[in-house]
Each structure stands twice: as C-alpha cells, then as structure tokens.
Design goal:
By secondary structure, the chain is of the alpha/beta class. It is built from 11 helices and 11 strands. It folds into 2 domains: about 55-115; about 125-255, Rossmann fold.
Length: about 260
C-alpha cells in the first residue's frame, strides 16, 4: 500500500462506502511477511509497509539469494504491490525470476528487472541523467530504470565527458531544464564538478569503476567527486546507480508526493 491507496481507503471510510472493520483488515496486511527457508528458519522478512513509509515498495538486491528465494520474494511483494524493482539480477536468478513473474521486464544493461501493473501513469519530468562516457552507461541505466520505476520520466544525456567539453555545452539547455541531475563518470570524475558549475540544481555524482591503473576500482573517482569545488554536488558510492536514481526521484517529487 502506498500513500495514494491509503488516502483512498480513508476516503471510503469517511464516505461510508467501507466499514471500519474492513479498513482495519486491509491495514492489517501491512504487517511484514516472513518467508521460511529450506530449514524452516526465516529466509526473508518482506516489508509491506515500506511503500507507505518511504514512497516505494521494498527493492530487492539479487546477489546472495538463491534463484528460488528470489522468485519467492518477488511473488510475495507483488501479492500486495503493483510495482517491483530487482537490482543486479543476472544468471540463474534472473531466469528463475522471469519464469516466476511472466510480466517482468528485464533491463539488460542496467542488470535490473521491473514490474509495473495497474493503470499507466505519465512520468514526472525533471530528472536528467548524464554520463561522461559510454563505459559509464550501465551504471547510468541502473539509475534511469530506478527513477522510472519510481514514477519519473528521466532525460538521458550520454557520452558528454570533459575530453570533449563541446558535447556537454551542446546540451546545456536540457541540463539546465532539469530539477535534479545524476552525473555518472569514471576516470578522474571531473564531469560532476563541471555540471555543478553550470546549474543551480542538486547534482548527484556517481563514481564508476571505469578507469586505468591506480583508479583503485573507482575509489580514485569517488575521492575526486567528494572533493568537488561545486557546492551543489553530493556523491553516492562507486557504481551505485540505484542509489542515485532513488534519491533523484525523491528530490524531484518533493516531500508531499505519495
């Protein structure tokens, strides 16, 4: 249950279309569901209250879960929600999930799976996702898929890094039109500071592990972005497109949206 469905439920009670006992029964389904593993001990505790509390249902991180566990968790979430997002989903776990949920959509480059049921709704405009190079696109795609799952209609501006700054400046109008920007870059990560210096908007910088030698699997880029001189730049962890897309959606929707 999300905020919109809760408000509809309360409105039905107020109008006399739904009695209090029925409303209480509906709210009782917000309790977590414990799924037992093969040994009978809880394998997962699914948080059905999260959409109401945080604005989006529990997101499933696929690594570390068996294919059967992943499929069971996904079905449990979809039993009480119209939306599902699974991140870093590959191999046998992906096959099991797609078999268990036939309407699931696999986003190959993002390594993510989504389900969106119910009436189609237009996405909110205002999020832009910018990458320095094509090597950064998989992380950017994780951010894009996450933002779309949360109701956004992000604009993507790919391969406009500082090695050819004219490419970025050619998209200046689209960049300035955004309410919040996700900037994804590897190597020295300079793009985040450059974009931050062009706009009066929040910039969520995502360091990627793309780079040579002492790049340290993205740690060099992470430290560079954290030392950005542009004051509107905040940084998520290395390759964390999911976190950046999630925060971008929260910024764009504002505090009152459900």
């Amino acid at each position: 249950m999300d905020r919109a469905r809760l408000l509809a439920l309360l409105a039905s009670v107020k109008a006399g279309d739904l009695d209090i006992d029925a409303a209480a029964a509906a709210l009782a389904h917000l309790e977590p569901s414990s799924l037992p593993g093969a040994d009978g001990a809880p394998m997962a505790v699914v948080d059905h209250h999260r959409a109401l509390r945080c604005g989006f249902p529990e997101v499933v991180y696929a690594p570390g879960k068996t294919p059967d566990d992943l499929a069971r968790i996904a079905r449990e979430i979809l039993g009480r929600s119209e939306r599902l997002l699974v991140t870093r989903c590959e191999g046998a776990a992906l096959a099991a999930l797609l078999a268990a949920v036939p309407d699931a959509v696999h986003h190959v480059r993002a390594r993510a799976v989504t389900v969106t049921r119910g009436p189609a709704r237009a996405g909110r405009v205002g999020v832009a996702i910018v990458t320095a190079g094509t090597a950064d696109v998989p992380v950017a795609e994780e951010a894009r898929v996450t933002a779309e799952a949360m109701g956004e209609a992000p604009v993507v501006i790919y391969d406009v890094g500082v090695a050819g700054l004219h490419r970025l400046l050619a998209r200046h109008d689209a960049i300035r039109a955004a309410n919040v920007l996700v900037v994804v870059a590897g190597m020295e990560g300079a793009l985040a500071s450059v974009v931050g210096g062009l706009v009066d908007r929040p910039v969520i910088a995502v360091p990627t592990s793309a780079g040579y030698g002492m790049n340290l699997a993205g740690v060099t880029t992470l430290l560079a972005m954290m030392n950005a001189c542009a004051p509107n730049v905040s940084v998520v962890n290395v390759d964390n497109g999911f976190g950046a897309g999630y925060v971008a959606s929260l910024v764009n929707r504002g505090p009152s949206a459900g």
